[in-house]
Amino acid sequence: MSFEKLGLDPTLLRAVASQGYEQPTPIQAEAIPAILAGQDLLAAAQTGTGKTAAFTLPLLQQLLTDPQPPANRHGRRIPRVLVLVPTRELAAQVADSIRDYGRNVPIRTTTIFGGAGMQPQINALRRGVDVVVATPGRLMDHIERRNIDLSAINRLVLDEADRMLDMGFINDIRKIIGLLPERRRQNLLFSATFSAGIRTLANSLLQSPQTIDIAPRNSAAEQVTQNVYSVDKNSKRALLEHLLRSQSWGQTLVFTRTKHGADRLTEQLLRSGLRAAAIHGNKSQGARTRALTDFRNNRVQLLIATDIAARGLDIDALPHVVNYELPQVAEDYVHRIGRTGRAQYSGAAVSLVSADENTQLKAIEKVIGRKLERQVEAGFEPSARPPADKPAGKKPGKPRQQRQRQDKAHAGNAKPRSNNSRRGQRQQRA
């Protein structure tokens, strides 16, 4: 199948061709005709399957064929399409996609998210826009200050809805939906999984939706090679540097578990002469944008990220993802490695696993439905662990009768504790 057969406008087809795409991905082949037909949509698609274009292209076409765009009393356009996303990075990615595919059409798009100044966003809204891509929290700020007019919204997209639910945005989402016009509206819900929470949200929002399920729940991308290196915790950084240099890795996205860990690893890699930058929630929006831009433009080889970036980054042909530390939630592993092996490209995911992470590794294997083979790099062999039935540092227990006699003796010699002692102990625990 070709994009031409999907019924897209020639202006959009030229933009698609300029991006180097010749055939639609499965999610695009199914979603584009459904959206053009005006249907509500419930779609589950793995990251890297082209789902952003799957709703961006038909929405642009619908905007082109709409009658006269609605305007406020000042004659400025008011938005007709609202796209809600969980993170700033994803908001920027979706807006860039709309601008890329809509380069030949007179459609205005703006982004609204936290970590950036309010005034530039207010100015963009006042100039008039057709499409607003927003994170729920910052959009609520604008709504409460009456900076945005939602009275003409006739198409709503919830992108990565499962992630928004995980991040606690459900109340804001419900408030926003309640403020939209009650007349018929096309609603599109995209999610990596069809969890119980997503099903509940879909039932309250969608009307007779077409359901599309491109990838099985929590499946890892087929074109991603997954490797696990067993290594001591304190040898991870040395092993990472060794692999980077010995295997001539190019751009590499490295995931840590904490913000502090991301900053510390970045500083260590910089001292080793590697080009690295960190991206996480404590960074300002300007710093995050610079780090991502430098990484995309290959001015930075290593982007060290927390899970906030797991679903919000879209980097073409990213060759490597490294789990420097395994995620606490097994499903996040799928989203992490989904940053590579996107669309028609292949990729490699490497996990550096220490002995204390074996429980997380087993949980990941259960989620993806396969066992990941462990390997050891010469010179970085993990130290031998004590047998499971004899934990290190634990002395053999005393016979039960002896323990009971000692307990009684101690009880007889014990002095009653004052209330002050108990209060002090409670304070120490607190």
UniProtKB/TrEMBL annotation:
CDD domains linked to this entry: DEADc (cd00268), SF2_C_DEAD (cd18787)
GO biological process: response to temperature stimulus; ribosome assembly
Family matches, as SUPFAM superfamilies: P-loop containing nucleoside triphosphate hydrolases
EC class (word): hydrolase
Region feature Disordered, mapped onto this chain: 377-430
InterPro entries documented for this protein: DEAD/DEAH_box_helicase_dom, DEAD/DEAH_RhlB, DEAD_box_RNA_helicase, Helicase_ATP-bd, Helicase_C-like, P-loop_NTPase, RNA-helicase_DEAD-box_CS, RNA_helicase_DEAD_Q_motif
Keywords: ATP-binding, Cytoplasm, Helicase, Hydrolase, Nucleotide-binding
Listed transmembrane segments: none
EC number: 3.6.4.13
Protein name: DEAD-box ATP-dependent RNA helicase RhpA
